[in-house]
Amino acid sequence: MRKVSFAEFGGPDVLRLVDAAEPHAGPGRIRIAVRAAGVNPVDWRIREGQFQRTRPIELPAGIGHDAAGVVDEIGRGVAGIAIGDRVFGAGDDTYAEFAVLSAWAPIPGGLTFEEAAGYPSVVETALRILDQVGAQSGQTLLVSGASGGVGSAVLQIAHDRGITVIGTAGAANQDYLRSLGAVATTYGDGWVERVRRLGHIDAALDLAGSGVIRELVELTGDPRKVVTIADLGAPELGVRFSGVAGSMREALTAATDLISRGKLRIPVERSYPLADAARAHADSRAGHTRGRRVVLI
């Protein structure tokens, strides 16, 4: 089969499309014929070697965690699923023609493979950091870098929970944030004052890692009310870096419920062929994403 792999840490150019042995579903796992794989910032952070001190990997390595496709192999002990079922979920090395998933759920009605591949890690992350930051119904949450995949999910889930959300993004994404139920404002010079004029901030999330941790602490008045998924230096300021995933199975159940109730929809901004995974990584790292990026197989 074909898969994307890298043999050294570095920029997008280290990614290679290679021939590899097919993986097989062990106990408690399923294998899918991948139709689409989600592109997440954690993918290029791993490729760059950012997590080698905390979560080392051996090279050469595959890449990717999220996928949607058709079940074609079922491991021992797995029930409630059949060959040919359409599923989305998470596993390892999903930028490939076949991938083994450790968590999965049926694709909600109305979603294509391309759309479904963009949900798993995004929704898990959004649910996790919303719980960690502790924002409650009736409070106001500031989301810095709100237009990407995680931001899109955070805004909609928070809105469903009765939380008022102020989101920062580029000028081109202001209407997009408003369409997701957020109060929108731009980042850049004067952004702190613009946020202050919009109201009191009870909690804040940093999704972009753009060097705003001190300002978020200032706005909330307490580093314990700020959580980041993008700034590795944040703990030096007393701010929690959230990098350990929670239950993917629970996240997929929640995603299915939200989608079925019409409370969550994450658009695919751009799709890439498997051979162009390097371009997908470069574009993801450049930011300014509206929704999700996916690789098609």
UniProtKB/TrEMBL annotation:
Residues 10-295 form the Enoyl reductase (ER) domain. It comes from the Bacteria. Pfam families: ADH_N, ADH_zinc_N_2. Keywords: NADP, Oxidoreductase. Gene3D superfamilies: Medium-chain alcohol dehydrogenases, catalytic domain, NAD(P)-binding Rossmann-like Domain. The keyword Oxidoreductase applies. Its EC number is 1.-.-.-. SMART domains: PKS_ER. SUPFAM superfamilies: GroES-like, NAD(P)-binding Rossmann-fold domains. The keyword Glycoprotein does not apply. InterPro entries: ADH-like_N, ER, GroES-like_sf, NAD(P)-bd_dom_sf, Zinc-ADH_QOR/CCCR. One of its GO terms (molecular function) is oxidoreductase activity. This is NADP-dependent oxidoreductase.
